Amino acid sequence: MTIHMVKLCVGADTVEDLADWQERQLKKLPNPVHHTRMMPKRAEEMLEGGSIYWVIKRAIRVRQRIIDIRAVKDEEGRDMCELVFDPTLVRTYARPKRPFQGWRYLKPAEAPRDLKSGEAAVDIPANLDAALKDAGVW
Fold this sequence. Notes:
With 138 residues, the chain is α+β, with helices and mostly antiparallel strands. It has helices at residues 15-26, 43-46, 126-134, and strands at residues 4-8, 33-36, 51-56, 59-73, 79-85, 90-96, 103-106. The longest helix is centred in the N-terminal third of the chain and has 12 residues, at 15-26.
């Protein structure tokens, strides 16, 4: 079963800030990466089509497919987790999310839907988004 991850995008005020940061990484690496201290216990499920959903300015706004999860060491030799992403950023409907530390799992049914080509990123209340999803509108 696929599971996603949700994480605060610290230091980014917009999706464009995230894209710029990752473009700089792509000059040195084949794919964008992010390091976190803890290895997800459900890593295998995340590698079955899971994505990271980035929280920017108190809302989930964009996602990226997770293509690899690796154990690495930091500069001081401490164990770290390296998340490797598909470079494509997929905008989503904004879903409000309170600040939290670290990351959280996100069930596919609770993930905001992707914006279709040409759709504007609109902040709609989470309960309305859920009701529309339940009604089959999206």
